[in-house]
Amino acid sequence: MKKLYRKLVLMRNPLSRHSSRVFNDRKWIIPFLASLLMSITLFFSAIFGVFNAPHGGDQLPMPLDVVSVAKTEDSSGYFVESDLNKLFNTMGSSSLEAPRLAYLISGTKGDSNRMMRTLQAVYHPRNQYVLHLDLEAPPRERLELANAVKNDPTFAEVKNIRVMAQSNLVTYKGPTMIASTLQAIAILLKESLEWDWFLNLSASDYPLVTQDDLLHVFSNLSRNFNFIEHTQITGWKLNQRARPIIVDPGLYLSKKSDIAWTTQRRSLPASFKLYTDAGVERSDILIFES
C-alpha cells in the first residue's frame, strides 16, 4: 500500500510543478491590466482637460490649450490667404470682378450699317454704348439707326445703348471731333457711372478679340491704369502744333468742309502746359492745368 501511494505522489509531482510554473508565468497579466486601465484613464482625463475650460481660476490646465483657444485672427497670418486678402484690399473691391467698358461709335453719311456691325461685334451686356451719326448723314439714316437699335430684342432688354439725338457736324481733323467725344462722355457719365474705361471707335473699326476675352484681360489691370501715353510738347512741335491757328468750319457752318489754317501765329500759353499723345505722330493736343 505504501508503494502504491508513493507511485501516486510521484505521478502528481510533475503535474503540480507544471501548473505552478504556468501560474507563475501569468503573474504579469494583473500588473499589465492595471497599468493599461490607468493609462486609459489618464488619456481620457487629458483629452477632456484640454477641450473643457476650467471653471475655477484663470490659468489654463495645460500649455497645449493655448493653441486650442487662440483667436482665428492670430493664426490667419500662417496661411497664404491672408496675403491675398491684403492684396485685394489694396487693389479695391472693383478689381475682383470683370470691368465695364464704355464705347463711343461714330460715323458719318452712309455708315449706319457699318456702325451696327461694329456695335454687334463689341457688344456685351456689362458695357455702355453711345452711337453718334454726324450731321452730314440725312435724317432718314439717323432714324433707321435709332430704329435698328430699338427693335433689337437684346438691346431693348438690357438698355445699355444710347443713340445721340443731337447730331453734330464733325470735322475729323478739327476740334469738333473732340467736342463730339466730350459730349458722348458727358452722356455716359450722366446715364451711368458703372464703367471703368472709355474707347472711341469709328464705323470702320472691328475688334480682333471677343469682348469676353477683352474683359478677362482687363480684369487683371488696375482701374486707375490709363492707356494714353502723353508727353509735353517741346522743340519743333511748339511751332508746328501749338502756335498755328486752325479754323474748324464745323463750329459755325451746316455743311462739312476741311479745316483752314491762318497765316497768323499765336503766342504760347503761360498759365498751363501743352501735352500730346506720344503713341502716334499726329494727335490731338491735351491741355492740363499746371
List the helices and strands and how they pair.
Blueprint: H1 2-25, H2 29-51, H3 65-68, H4 72-75, H5 80-91, E1 101-107, H6 112-122, E2 128-133, H7 139-151, H8 153-158, E3 161-163, H9 175-191, E4 197-202, H10 211-218, E5 230-232, H11 236-242, E6 244-247, E7 260-265, E8 272-277, E9 285-289
Parallel strand pairs: 1-2, 1-4, 2-3
Antiparallel strand pairs: 5-8, 6-7, 8-9
- Helical run tally: 11
Q: Percentage of helical residues?
A: 40-55%
Give the class-level CATH name of the domain at 100-227. Alpha Beta
What would you call the shape?
A: elongated
Radius of gyration: 44 Å
Within the CATH hierarchy, at the fold level, what is the topology of the domain at 100-227?
A: Spore Coat Polysaccharide Biosynthesis Protein SpsA, Chain A
Q: Numbering strands along the chain, what is their spatial order in the largest sheet? A: 3-2-1-4
Label the structural class: alpha/beta
Q: What is the subunit arrangement here?
A: single chain
The major β-sheet equals: 4 strands, parallel
H-E string: HHHHHEHEHHEHEHEHEEEE
User: What is the number of beta strands?
Assistant: 9
Name of the CATH homologous superfamily of the domain at 100-227: Spore Coat Polysaccharide Biosynthesis Protein SpsA, Chain A
Low-confidence stretches: 53-81, 280-290
Proportion of residues in β-strands: 15-25%
Distance between the termini: 139 Å
On the 0 to 100 scale, the average pLDDT is 75
Instruction: Name the CATH architecture of the domain at 100-227.
Output: Alpha-Beta Complex
GO molecular function: glucuronosyltransferase activity
GO cellular component, one term: membrane
Keywords: Glycoprotein, Glycosyltransferase, Membrane, Transferase, Transmembrane, Transmembrane helix
Transmembrane segments: 28-51
